[in-house]
Amino acid sequence: MIAVSYFLIAAESVETELNQTTYSSEDVVNVTSRGNPLLARLARTAGVRQICIASWTPMVYCDEDDDSSTFYGYQVDLARAVASYLNWTELHAPSAQAALSMQAPGSMQAPGSSPGPHEPHEPYYYVFRCMEWRDMILDMLDESNGTCYMSAAGMTVSLDHLVAGFAFAWPNLYLGLGALTSTRPTSDIGQGGVWSLFRALDWGVWLALGLTIVGMSLLSFLFDAWYHLIEHHAASRQQAQAPGTRPPLRHQDLAPKDAAEVVYCMTGAAVLVCWPDPPTWAHRLPLIFYSLLLVVLSTMYGANTAAYLTQTSLKAPVSSLEDLQGRNVATWTEYVAALKNYGIDATGYPWETRYDEDAMLAALDDGTYSAIILDSAFIMNMASTHCGFEMVGDMFERNSIAFAFPPATPEEVVGEVSWAQVRLQERQMILDTLDHRYIHLEEVSCDAPPSSAFQPVEFSQVRVLWIILGVGIGVLVLGLSLYTLW
Question: In 60-91, which positions are buried (b, 16+ CB within 10 angstroms) versus exposed (e)?
Answer without folding.
Answer: bbbebeeebeebebbbbbbbbbbbebbebebb
